[in-house]
Amino acid sequence: MMSQITALTMPKWGLTMTEGKIVRWLKREGEGFGAGEEVIEIETTKITNVVEMPEAGRLGRIVASEGATLPVGALLAVVAPESVGDSEIEAFVAQFAPVEAAAETVESAGPQARLVEAGGRRLNCLDLGEGGVPVLLLHGFGADLNGWMFLQPALAEGRRTIALDLPGHGGSQKELDGAGEASFAAAIDRLLAALEIERAHLVGHSMGGGIALALAARHPERVASLTLIASAGLGPEINADFIAGFVRAQRRREMQEVLSLLVHDPSQMSRQMVEDVLRYKRLDGVQAALEEIAAEWFPNGVQRAGNAEAAASLPMPVQLIWGREDRIIPAAHAEALAARLRVHILPQTGHLPHMEKAGEVARLIKGFIAG
Asked: What is the pTM of this model?
């Protein structure tokens, strides 16, 4: 019977995750679930995310209670059919590896980001998976590669994926060689050359989408497909208060109010994420870089670039993914292109679909690339 039992353990999302807090179980003990169904909400250092089950099954035993904070690799529940008795489940739980050992093994075996020299600039990159045409993930204004913590592992199943910190962000060099879309696109082109990647699928979020658009327009031979998530560059409207507030905020309360605009449910945003952003903003060169980028991309509270027509005319496949409740860039920018491009508007989702609805976004990207 042991072969019919599997463990549901605390996942590791991102480089720095060592533990997670169980917010609530979405299924009861003894209840069945289908493939792709959500069974548990877990709070991370960024935002709350859900665990989706890859295959249908049944929660034979819930081991970890709501409110518990447990290390990566800890046993959360036992998945088993009704035919498996309590004694077999108890034996499985008793034989499960100690929590401390499981956490240590997962953490020590985890991938590490590295600095890549690209055209005289140092860019911090996380390289996961192998095979196929690579996927390059481009984050938005003020973010970093950890924003892809839920999505990148899913995309890296059987395919090479690279997430990077854009110039001026994260662990990359803070000095900018220009703050416009052309400068950022040139930096990405140099990175692809340094990584010896001739062609890639580009996935860009917010400002990263605008950069991906610029690269695809200038070097279409480099781009196999384009996925734009709540992308900048498709219309003039943007939440000017968010941009100004993000650049200006220096205190936790100020930053909490600003970051709450990013998600449909502000309770998803963790205190640690606020602290991490404030810590990043205190690094040498960051404030100047953010001010320069904001002035170039969003002058006078509007977006400078208007690339909607260019997006619809690109020679490679293009899809748009947006949150219906996006309070930063309106979903109307995507809806205006629905007759010409593949557009997905996700309900109860804000400006971070790749974090708020990571499983659904992963499926959309995988299917798009495969198609």
From this structure: 0.88
Question: Catalytic residue at 326?
Answer: yes
CA 270 – CA 256 distance, rounded (Å): 9
Beta bridge partners of 269: 47
The C-alpha atoms of residue 304 and residue 233 are separated, in whole angstroms, by 7
Q: Cα separations (Å) of 23 from 48, 132, 264?
A: 8, 37, 17
What phi and psi, each to the nearest 5 degrees, are found at residue 38? -85, 135
205 tagged catalytic: no
For this structure, is 351 an active site residue? Answer: yes
Closest CA to 164 of 132, 131, 130, 189: 189
Instruction: Find where tokens 């990647």 sit.
Output: 197
Beta-bridged to residue 202, according to DSSP, are: 136, 226
| Alpha-carbon span 21 to 42, nearest angstrom | 5
Between 292 and 104, whose confidence is greater? 292
Residues 6+ apart with CB under 8 A from 233: 181, 209, 210, 213, 214, 303, 305, 306, 307, 308, 311
Q: Which amino acid is at 106?
A: V
CA separation (Å) from 21 to 41, 72, 134, 256? 9, 10, 33, 20
Q: Which of 139, 172, 205, 206 is catalytic?
A: 206
**End-to-end alpha-carbon separation of the chain, Å?**
40
Q: Which of 139, 264, 326, 354 is catalytic?
A: 326
Distance CA 206, CA 139 (A): 7
pLDDT tens, position by position, 39-96? 999 988 888 888 989 899 999 999 999 999 999 999 999 999 999 988 999 999 998 8
Rounded distance between C-alpha atoms, residue 310 and residue 341, angstroms: 12
